[in-house]
Specification:
Blueprint lengths: L2 H15 L11 H10 L5 H14 L3 H6 L2 H8 L6 H16 L8 H4 L7 H12 L8 H11 L8 H14 L5 H14 L18 H4 L17 E11 L2 E6 L10 E2 L2 E3 L6 H13 L2 E14 L4 E13 L9 E5 L11 H19 L1
Parallel strand pairs: 1-6
Antiparallel strand pairs: 1-2, 1-4, 2-3, 2-7, 5-6
Helix pairs in contact: 1-11, 2-3, 2-8, 8-11, 9-10, 9-11
Length: 361
């Protein structure tokens, strides 16, 4: 199958078979931008309700720029990778204040915005503005590697460079945004990492991997290093029925989110010793670490944790914002007003349920 025929078949397949996703009903660069950022490392079905809620709350870039970061993070809560939200906020302020609310119409301008890398800039430029720039995400890499029967590691710098060149080679100049989405869609629903549905693939005849019977071997993906695990402690610090919560510094991991204070266990110390040390370093308080309240496991992209939560009371000292941005005493029923990491959400549900039950007695 020659290139024009492949482009024709895949474009026709996409027009007929693409999923009905809300961000595909618009050419508005702001809405496409929001969707592309949310879709980074997150599945479409997870993104849909967040996207709909987000654009209802912040319908344009000027509205987003005026919003408080805390409000933005609350709407984002549960979607994860909060640096995406913080960068969106920074970029929206730049567009609103320095560009008169006009989102850049070209790849080069888009890439200058915080949080907008090569892929996101290519997606917005091609979909919203018909700029003929190719995208290269995980789905596209896999599709191209199979079309060309590449036997090199698709994570290697050399192979990624070759894949960029291939993406440009295959790109349709007319409606490049539709083509980019067609290749991504093929990777998402047909050319899957495992058990690809080759029988339904419109590009089967052009796929060297299929023709050579190498589907089980391509793409070649190097093994990642083992994911590290950490034991982490947190304290439910009580005083007169209220809980102490702290806000993480904005320039760090999970920046701007609230949490129950604590930290990572160091070698040679017990969990109780870890929590006491962390609370002294973070808040300059000494605590009595009481009984364990909860233990839960949580996975992040690059590491996993077991979170150990203890009931605590302050023995001496007044909280100081040393290792955090700020701290507050709050009633348990107020916890839902704050944005917490996903790992803390099950704790909050239990604490608020218990507080509600106690109030009814």
């Amino acid at each position: 199958m020659n290139l024009p025929e492949l482009q024709k078949r895949l474009s026709a397949w996409y027009e007929q078979s693409r999923r009905d996703l809300p961000w595909r009903q618009t050419r508005d660069p702001y809405l496409i931008w929001i969707s592309e950022v949310m879709l980074q490392q997150t599945q479409a079905r997870t993104v849909i309700p967040y996207y709909q809620n987000f654009v209802a709350r912040f319908p344009d870039v000027n509205c987003l720029a005026k919003a408080e970061l805390s409000d933005l993070l609350k709407v984002w809560e549960g979607l994860g990778y909060y640096a995406r939200a913080r960068n969106l906020h920074k970029a929206a302020k730049i567009v609103s204040h320095e560009m008169q609310g006009e989102i850049p119409k070209a790849f080069t301008g888009l890439k200058q915005l915080p949080g907008v890398g090569e892929y996101t800039a290519s997606a917005i430029a091609s979909i919203a503005f018909d700029e003929p720039v190719a995208v290269l995400d995980g789905n596209v890499k896999r599709v191209l590697a199979r079309w060309e029967a590449l036997k090199s590691d698709i994570r290697s710098t050399r192979t990624v460079k070759a894949l960029h060149e291939l993406a440009r080679k295959y790109l349709v100049q007319d409606k490049p945004g539709d083509w980019n989405q067609a290749v991504m869609e093929l990777g998402a629903i047909i050319c899957r990492p495992k058990q690809p549905n080759c029988g339904s693939c419109p590009a089967q005849e052009a796929c060297a991997t299929f023709q050579k019977g190498l589907v089980a071997e391509i793409p070649v993906v190097s093994r990642r290093k083992p994911i590290p695990h950490y034991d982490v402690t947190a304290g439910l610090i009580w005083d007169d029925g209220k809980l102490l919560i702290t806000q993480r510094k904005e320039n760090g991991f999970l920046g701007g989110l609230w949490e129950f204070p604590g930290g990572k266990q160091e070698a040679g110390e017990s969990l109780e010793e870890c929590l006491a040390r962390e609370l002294h370093e973070e808040l300059d308080i000494s605590v009595n670490v009481g009984e364990k309240a909860y233990t839960l496991k949580h996975a992040y992209t690059h590491f996993r944790i077991t979170l150990h939560i203890y009931h605590c009371t302050i023995i001496s000292g007044t909280p100081q914002a040393i290792g955090c941005q700020r701290w507050l005493w709050v009633d348990p029923v107020q916890l839902d007003d704050f944005t917490f990491p996903k790992a803390d959400r099950s704790i909050i549900e239990s604490v608020t349920s218990q507080a509600a039950a106690n109030s009814e007695q």
